[in-house]
Design brief:
Oligomer: single chain
Largest sheet: none
CATH topology: Non-ribosomal Peptide Synthetase Peptidyl Carrier Protein, Chain A
Order of helices and strands: HHHH
Number of domains: 1
CATH architecture: Orthogonal Bundle
Number of strands: 0
Shape: globular
Length: 92
C-alpha cells in the first residue's frame, strides 16, 4: 500500500536525523548505516503504532525487522493482517 510506504518515510523524516534524505533511499538501504540509531528507531515505531492504531508484539520488535524501509513495511503489513486486514487490502 503506497500510503503506508509514504507514512513510513514521513515518520522517519519527522523523527530522525535522516529528514528528507529518507525519500531518496533505496528501500533496502540499511537505515543504521545512514545515521539512524536505536533511540530514533523506537520513536519511529511508537509513532507508526500511534498513527496506524496498531501495536507490535514484543517478539516482533527485533532490530533486523526495522533495518530498512522494506522490512518496516513488511513488518507493518504482518501486524495489519493480524488486525484483520486481508493481504489484498494491505498490499493494494
Amino acid at each position: 500500500m503506497d500510503n503506508i510506504k509514504e507514512l513510513i518515510c514521513s515518520v522517519i523524516a519527522e523523527k530522525t536525523v535522516l529528514k528528507e534524505q529518507v525519500y531518496e533511499l533505496d528501500e533496502t538501504a540499511n537505515l543504521f548505516l545512514t545515521g539512524l540509531d536505536s533511540f530514533q528507531l523506537m520513536n519511529v515505531i511508537v509513532e507508526l503504532e500511534r498513527r496506524l492504531e496498531i501495536t507490535f508484539k514484543d517478539e516482533e520488535l527485533i532490530v533486523i525487522r526495522f533495518q530498512n524501509l522494506k522490512e518496516i513495511y513488511e513488518s507493518i503489513c504482518e501486524v495489519l493482517v493480524r488486525y484483520g486486514y486481508g493481504k489484498t487490502e494491505v498490499n493494494a
